[in-house]
Amino acid sequence: MTTDRPHVSLLGTTALLFEAPGETTLETQRRIWALARDAAGFAGVREAVPGMNNLMLAFAEPPRRPEEIEQRLVERWNVVEPLPIAGRCIDLPVVYGGEAGPHMADVVEHTGMHVDEIVERHSAPTYTVFALGSHPGYCYLGGMDARIATPRRKVPVLKIPRGAVSIGGSQTGVSASDGPSGWNTIGSTEVAFFDVNRSPPALLQPGDSIRFKAVRVLR
Amino acid sequence: MIKVLTAGALATVQDLGRTGALNLGVGTSGAMDPLALAGGNILLRNEENAAAIEIPVFPFKVRFERATVFAVTGADCAARLDETSLLPWWAYRAEAGQVLSLSLPKPGTWRATRAYLCIADGIDVPVVLGSRSTQLRGSFGGHEGRALRDGDELRAGRPNGRAVPGFGLMPPGLSLPLQADGVPAVRVLPAAEYDCFTDSSQEALWSTAWKITAQSDRYGYRLAGEVLNPRRRLELRSHGIVPGVIQVPHGGQPIIQMRDAQPSGGYPKIGTVIEADLWRLGQAPIGSSVRFIRCSWDEALGALADVRHWFANARRLVELHCGEGGGR
User: Fold this and answer.
1) End-to-end CA distance of chain B
2) CB contact under 8 A, A51 and B264
3) What is the Cα A15 distance to its own chain's centre?
4) Which domain holds residue A14?
5) Alpha-carbon dihedral angle through residues B66, B70, B72, B73, given to the nearest 10 degrees
6) Partner B contacted by A131 (CB < 8 A)
7) Can you give the pLDDT at residue B282?
8) What are phi and psi of A99, to 5 degrees?
9) Which residue segments constitute the domains of chain B, with CATH numbers given?
10) Is residue B157 packed enough to be buried (19+ CB in 10 Å), middle (13-18) or exposed (0-12)?
11) pTM of the model
12) CATH number of the domain that A169 lies in?
């Protein structure tokens, strides 16, 4: 849902959600990162958590008047300069299709493209990590070619493995651990996105980027 | 030290939850009934956030390997120490070698399904990213990042000698009841997409009962009831969510996010169960019904104040008892 003005709403008394207007872009995300940096210092805010062109503020203590924080956020949004984070880029070798990508056929059917074309389009961009979420170490990526967008599955799969490369709507990502998912798995890679004994535990952070390198295409 | 003899299923070490790691994609975890966990800790004069064992499936059995003061809070599950029947929400002393057995929660007292075994000085597992709670998806925290198994051994924290047996607390299920038309209820603040639902769906949210289906666990409660329809199909961008958020997937049957929920999502949100009432849901049995009561921000803050008052009162009673009869 996009309008021309930001939208702020409550998540109970636990948090507040700020949603930027317009299409999902890296430029908007850079303003979200800047807003997050500011808002993390607001009194009563425990954590400022970027999403895809939106920002959640988790409260340490619910404010007496949440509309004051809402107003402050919107005022900051209107003046905030985009924060360009120059992150690092990692290459991930991906085996596409076959057993590694059990839902490739659904993407083929939906897009009408040949497997090779899907692999080419999926592995062409450099994807920027917009935010972390979903499960420990998972990265929300921006920049997928809209032509390979494929709707989420009607029935979520109970367990897709760590390293699964998948498409959900116009987004793509890599599972950081085994778990349920409604996305379409098109390939598989080997990477440890999260290790609680590592500092920091997450391999990537917002502003970093990922390139997928096709090492094999199974048919 | 305590040894788990019968783990049941899905028993986990929990504290009040993991805050501050959302930016790593790590959700909060923590006790489904934070009042029972903190209440048990208050009873034992522990820190309120000390770790305990959350037990959702029975029978559950442990052996105390050394003398320990403990309390079983949450559900009334006919606890026995060897052959002796115990009161729930009561501090007892177990001697080395004694066996504590918990059975299916009794109907007819207060409505609860999860028991908490709290011990003096708390369960000593490592603090990971600021919490001792088990993070099942990430396989860390709690005891080896997983549910307990038969034979597991758990240590208590550094002894402070403060716990005193022979005293109890009134369960919040009795002292803080909340119902709508005779059905257990929780209070809800409308969320971002509330206005996007049809008038009849909004009406149904507040005026009809919602059944908690068998597909309900620490991750989320899937509800069954009237179909909730948005005025038009909504496609949202992934964003942060919190326990208590009521999502409505395309099928129209709501899902309430619970303690192990992922910290982000993309389904439309019709409302959020307020933090002060999440413990009620955490104790709601599968197959039972729940009603949603619309509340304002100020009412939600008032509900939090009521919970804090309950804690303060519990602390006062425990200190009164320990001051007068402590050490007997």
Assistant:
1) 24
2) yes
3) 20
4) 7-79
5) -150
6) yes
7) 97
8) -65, -25
9) 2-173 (no CATH), 179-295 (2.40.100.10)
10) middle
11) 0.94
12) 2.40.100.10
Q: Which two tokens stand for residue A176?
A: 């950081």
pLDDT category at A3 given cuts 50, 70, 90 is low
* Tokens 């504590």 sit on residue: B100
Please give the ipTM for the structure prediction. 0.95
Kindly provide the b/e burial profile for residues B171-206, where b requires at least 16 CB atoms within 10 angstroms of the residue's own CB: bbbeebeeebeeebbbbbbbbbbbebbeeebbebbe
Six-digit token string for A97: 């299709």
Q: Which of A34, A54, A79 marks a domain boundary?
A: A79
For A43, the token pair is 């009194």
> What would the two tokens of residue A17 be?
């959600």
Please answer yes or no on whether B300 and A134 come within 8 Å at the CB atom. Answer: no
3-state secondary structure of B247: strand
CB contact under 8 A, B237 and A54: yes
User: Does residue B103 carry a pLDDT above 60?
Assistant: yes
Average pLDDT over residues A91-103: 97
pLDDT for residue B159:
85
pLDDT attached to residue B324: 56
Please give, rounded to a whole number of angstroms, the shortest distance from the CA of A116 to a CA of chain B. Answer: 28
CA within 13 Å, CB half, A95: 12
